[in-house]
User: Fold this.
Amino acid sequence: VHSKPPSYTHINTNRYNPKHKPKRHPPTNESCNCKPSSEDGIVSCGDGCLNRLSYVECVGDKSLKNGEKNPYWNCNCGPICSNRGVSKRQFAKCRPMREHGKGWGLITVNGVKKGDLVQEYCGEIIDEKTKEERLLAWSRDHPNDPNFYVMHLEPGWYIDAREVANIARFINHSCDPNCKLVPVNVAGFTRVSIVCIKDVEPGGFLSYDYQFDTRHEEKFTCRWGSPRCRGTMKGVKTSSSTQKKTKKQLLADAKARVQRDKKFLQSISDSEKHRLHLTGMLVPGEREGGSELVAGGPREKYRRDAREGAIFLWRNARLGADFSSRYWRRMTRMKNKSSNKKRENLAAVSCKLGKVDLFSVLKA
Assistant:
């Protein structure tokens, strides 16, 4: 049945809306102190590179026409620099494969070592409002599809890899993963790289911790089965991760949480108003000042009427249910039945009158 992975539009880099996209980060005007290496086995811009330690990719190539005029120039090593994997798409060879009990996953063909760049998580770059609208529409139209493809990029912006993405969308969750997500600044744009943290043999499945930010952790069950499994894909926030954020990022996150809470409270208020509009205080037919309230639920004396009139299933009755419309539909059906019965009686009488001998009636 699932011989092919689900279809999507493949892209090699993030897709931006040219009229609405995140602002490009300004250049730092700093460059690493690394020097080009011509010796075998020694790479330029290795683990001690200032840019690499700052999660910034090296930029700069004198061989290009306007290379030295690039405001994001931060490295003098040129093309032999080893800190340009995301921009050059120097990824491990991978392909999708069915993973038992987890749907489609992603395997590495030749294996990867600890510290290797595996993939980049690519998709459509959307803002907070668009994200909320898409998630709401998807949960409404596909209530039984738990797959989730939205990833946080930076404050106020997200990557949506549901319909437009690369093969990184197939990587599954694990509470004890072999990869991790590393946001990288590439010439002023934030991009999410996936880096290996454990050696993975050829044909091994790749995984990272989804760290979902959700109030419904029961909907996102982890099926990895490792000894360190939390049982859910919901993330566990630590104080260290909060300290790494700048004041601007913390303020943006706080504003986003306030907006989410406002929308949640507004939805509750709207639902209560809608329910009160549909349901009256008293049971339909009860006079003012009566004791039968809708909030008390259906009483035992209505069980027969409910079953015979097919108004509702008695076993599914809940407190405060709206029976008004169904009650009046039942009354309409009963009225129609009585009118049909009158027509039948009238027709029967007319048939009987048609068989009477008029001469015998006149003589009498």
